[in-house]
UniProtKB/TrEMBL annotation:
One of its GO terms (molecular function) is phosphorelay response regulator activity. One of its GO terms (biological process) is regulation of DNA-templated transcription. SUPFAM superfamilies: CheY-like (SSF52172). This is Response regulator receiver domain-containing protein. The modification 4-aspartylphosphate is found at residue 59. Keywords: DNA-binding, Phosphoprotein, Two-component regulatory system. SMART domains: REC (SM00448). GO terms for cellular component: cytosol; protein-DNA complex.
Amino acid sequence: MYSLQMHSILIADDDEEMRELLKFKLQGGYEVTAVSDGEECWRYLVANSNDLPDLMILDVMMPGLNGYRVLDRMQDDERFDEVAVIMLTSRGKEDDIVRALESGATDYMTKPFSANELIARIKRVLE
């Protein structure tokens, strides 16, 4: 008998309440790791390049390394080609959405958001 491995999700958001909410909504169905900014996100990806998350939920507006810069770095490094990215941010202008999608984001959602919609989008991406 074998067990199915859970999909893993990395959350990168500088808002602690948002990280905790996302972890609460996703734990149980996914292995969830959360980091507090883009620099920590990048360090996590590099350090875990042999065991990458299946999906990242990435905020755009974070101090230091923002979500767009994390995406750009991922695009420049083929190790991260298989990591799906859902941008979850308060930035909802068309230019922001196009920039994220052109930089490799798999999907884009704006805050405030529906947890049920986010979970449905995650399932669509991972399954």
